[in-house]
Amino acid sequence: MMLRREQGRVERDGVGIAYEQVGHGEPTLLLLPAWMITNSGLWAAQRDGLGDRFRCLSYDARGSGRSDRPAEPERYRVTELVADTLAVLDAAGADRAVLVGNSLGGLVAYLTAALHPDRVAGLVLISAAADLTGDEHAPLVRAIATFDEERPGDDGWACYNRRAWQRDYPGFARWFVDTALGDEATAEAREDGVRMALDVTPEVLAAGVTARSGPPAGVQAAKLRRLAAQLTCPVLLIHGDRDAVVPPAWSAALAATLDAVVTPLPGAGHCPQVTRAAEVNGLISEFATGIGTSRSAA
Length: 298
Prior knowledge:
CATH topology: Rossmann fold
CATH architecture: 3-Layer(aba) Sandwich
Radius of gyration: 18 Å
Shape: globular
Strand content: 15-25%
CATH class: Alpha Beta
Largest sheet: 8 strands, mixed
Strand order of the largest sheet: 1-2-4-3-5-6-7-8
Oligomer: single chain
CATH superfamily: Alpha/Beta hydrolase fold, catalytic domain
Number of helices: 11
Order of helices and strands: EEEHEHEHEHHHHHEHEHH
Helix content: 40-55%
């Protein structure tokens, strides 16, 4: 069956956000963008695989895809990303939705659920970049903290750096896509990932990294732990045990704090919704169906 696709655009504070609706059914699934190095194409397998049962909303993060690309770092603060999430829900006429977030999108979903619980029916956090442990030694945390420093070499995490991007951004894009997808990704998935990464300018991507730098990891973790008490919705945690971007320990800490359980995916990397689409779709479908059933009973 051919799924009907509808495209829309919402402008908030001078920045246009492009979104798409696919399929029908309740509850609504809002597939949040991850880091701006990709676009809503990251969720193609979920839109195609779940649109016959649920209404699937997705959108390009500011800085990527068909959305506007402001240059100022303050435009990429996480508070702006949360506000974009709500703006898309409003524009699509969705009072509540199950938020599905991977990586940075997982952090945005977590914050949206904590700060606006009336808009969130459930959370699916896939390798969420929400660190409740204060792990300042994690490679991603170190890379963000030293982003503007000159680092030796341009290999591995050393290339997650402003100066390295000025020297060879395509090289970084290829390394990051390979690192995020992991060994089990197909050549086609890698090509798609690099194509999306090269559609983003290093200047815009750097503005997003600058916006994420700030208080030490321990201070940010303490804030996230305090917000956990404000979450009122069911939570599904998914994490590949070979994730080389976000440590699986971060999802374990989320599970302990939220009284939830992590569904591990042995052998999977940072983006299992791409490399394990059928398996992840099954988990999302079962979770969302349970939420829809409970709401109908109520």
